[in-house]
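Quick one: structure for this chain?
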Amino acid sequence: MTTFIIIAAIITLVALGILVLPLLRTRNTVSYERQAQNIHYAKERLEELEAQLKNASISATDYEALKLEIESTLAHDIDIANNSTDEQTDGPRQSNKLAIGLLTIFLPLSALGFYLVVGTPESIVPASQTQPTQDQVQNLVSGLEQRLEQTPDDLEGWQLLSQTYLTLGRYADAQRGYQRVLTLGGETAHTYASLADATALAAGGEITDEVTKYVERALTINKDNRQALWLAGLGAAQTGDQANAKKYWNRLIPLLDDAPQQQEELRAIIRDNFGDQANGNIASQETPLEGSSPEPAIGSQAGLTIAVSLNPEIAQLADANDFVFIFARAQQGPPAPLAVKRLRVADLPTTVTLSDSDAMVAPMTLSKFEDVLVSARVSKSGQPVAQSGDLQSDLVATKNTATQTIELTISNIVK
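Got it. Here's what it folds into:
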């Protein structure tokens, strides 16, 4: 990337040189124009004198005297002009200096602006330095919300906003957004599956009847929608219907060839839940060789140590008896929380441990997903579903093998 910047700078300097060098040359344009005017005027006068001489309007003696006068005057004017040229030999004229200044500023800036529009400026800055801050993301969301207030029928805008809400963990807002997408004609398998995902997450990971309805609609439109197949299997597992859970997830496995980590995680879930009953898409369990040790779990069984506190600045908004939910969920994987603990505000500050014993669904445990997100929320309604007025912490990304204590401070108000 340094080579690219150096080459671009050299090309810019060469272009500037080609444009600026002619402007640096000393040239007395005013003197040149004055000389040309004088010569032209002298020629006209001489032509008039010759015409008068032919017409006998003047004598030959007068003709010679007037001709000599014109030539003397022209020579005198040219001499004055040449003397004035010497006064401008120290550098370019003022107008040239202005042109040079504008070129040296405008050319590099215009090249940079053009590159920012049609190029790939993100390749110059490492990805770690281009991640937007939380304030920047919030500003972008606010800008999109304001735009949709002015153009409420913008289907693509609502799709983008709904997906952003879902990514930010604003599940209730994501629900409303995807419902708006449906009313605007965006009835696709992706919309129904995303709406089902948002509804399930808003319900604390529970696959409710409403979620099932959206999932079925998504699979009717596209029987191979990956998100809908996952949720369908999860719903069946939650109700104890292992046959349908296995059916949906076995159908999902070959569709995850481009996501091998998720594919292996799903295979592990099916193995743990169904054992040898899994179909041919799942590798059969083999008897370990003598002297070999069983394959270790993806993560540690010890769990995550989490310290939870309530920001004093918003403490007055919480009642001592309000419930506090502490979640851990996969960064990439099932929408349902992998582990949940429920406390009271009166218990804060406190330190808890989330482990496999806190799983909501038996096969989906914390130890099976390496990359997880943890958060804490004060629920004013007593339900795990986030609602307006609840208080929550930021999401913290970590590994399920992390041994250090994770600090969560509840500082945000759910809008």
